[in-house]
Design brief:
This protein has helices at about 10-20, 55-60, 110-120, 155-160, 225-235, 245-250, 280-290, 290-295, 315-320, 350-365, 375-380, 400-410, 425-435, 440-455; strands at about 35-40, 70, 75-80, 80-90, 90-95, 135-140, 145-150, 190-195, 200-205, 215-220, 240, 255-270, 305, 335-345, 365-370, 390-395, 460-470, 475, 495. It has about 500 residues and is α+β, with helices and mostly antiparallel strands. The chain folds into 3 domains: about 10-65 and about 185-240 and about 470-495, D-Maltodextrin-Binding Protein, domain 2 (3-Layer(aba) Sandwich), CATH 3.40.190; about 70-175, Alpha-Beta Complex (Dipeptide-binding Protein, domain 1), CATH 3.90.76.10; about 260-465, Dipeptide-binding Protein, Domain 3 (Dipeptide-binding Protein, domain 3, Roll). The longest helix has 17 residues, at about 440-455. This is ABC transporter substrate-binding protein.
Length: about 500
Amino acid sequence: MRVPARLSLPAALAASALLSGCFSSTGAAGSGEGERLRVAMMQPPRSGLSPLSDDAFKLSRWSTAETLVKLDADGDAVPALATEWKQSGRSWEFTLRDGVTFHDGTDLTAEAVVRSLTEAATASPKPRILDGVDLTAKAKGTGTVVVTTADEDPLVPQRLSSPQLSILAAKAYRGKTVNPVGAGTGPFELTEVDGTSSAALDRYDDYWGGRAKAPGIDVRFVPDGTARAAALRSGEADIVEAVPVSQAALLDEDLITEVPMPRTNTLYLNTEKGVFKDASLRAAAREAIDAKSLVDGVYEGRADVAEGLLGPALPWATGLREPVEGRAKAGDPAGKTVTIGTFTDRAELPEVAAALQQQLRKAGFEVKLEVREYAAIESDALAGAFDAFILSRATVLDSGDPAAYLYSDFASDGSFNISRLADPAVDKALEKAGGTPTGDARRRAVIEAEAAVLATDAAVPMLHERVIQGDAADVAGAAHDPRERELVTLDTHVK
């Protein structure tokens, strides 16, 4: 264990206790070159690391599962497992990269790609990137795949960049669930998963893109933010995901990187039943919220007050946004009781909930809080069990385009519609945004859809987060990705 001299013995012992056995190497030793990377992740797997769930982003951040295309810094599609593509009406033809093998030694073929995409397109529920999308894939020879949608879709390449549409070997689909162990194409092979505790990956020396500098990765899932920060301070971890704001000041500034995120901390209000079925009471809740005090108090200034659902990570949004019209006037809460749910995995959220409780009480609401780990509360939130739910939500995580997020969260048939919103005007605006070609016209349509959502007060955006990542002083090449798709890459290693 590498303990910096500045760390007191009690602090070092506390970190070791919190992470006892945390990074004992569970994977193979590799070639003996360099040290394995020890990574502390925030959220444990929720679906056994199935790529059809949000666990897909872990596979992407570990560089073990890959997609046909990737996104560049501007959100445009660039080659990955596919080298080029072209559109013909509702169909897109993708040319596959030569010389790619899966971690089990089998070749990447059109048949393998079709299998993975078909599994995703026919899953129940579908990956949210396919919300409202009827997609089919067919092989054209061994090296070409034709992807067709029911309606002409300008975002097909961006959709196929989602880690939820990763391409895996046939072995991954033999059971009732998708198992990514030993089935990816990336520079690191997933070799072992210990439930929600840990995972191990070894370098895959036959990777098509070259040889990774690190011999492997040892991952520990550490939901407690204080424990993650302690792991960095004590030298127990090389890379720490999502350092809580409250812990950032306790770390050496040289060890942390702050990145503006396309992530909005939003209060979702249940429009289907309960107190917030009344639009005037939704308006009363919105007017009661003091977002600046949350930014200053809970986030210690390391966040931005929200002007809309889309934040400064999408700079074009501010220039296109206009005042929201058509909102209901605020009613009188008159002592009505509401229950707000949130989760502990993001350390700031319980603090936000406590602050909101006071703000809403001041406005006349009676407020109860229910706080659990995310894996234990998500299903209740989606089922409408709460009057309101506080969520830290990525707005361009999947396709690099916010239309997919808006549809997922606010369309009548959206798969992540926590607000239970069913509004014809919103659905119409979302349909327009989704069907508009990429470019300025699409951006304007997206902002119109945002305004339609905000007019309902189904969601109250409070602040836009910045992610704080911790990298040990001897770590080089770690990715600092606003979209949370990359973390350990070919070049990441311990010096």
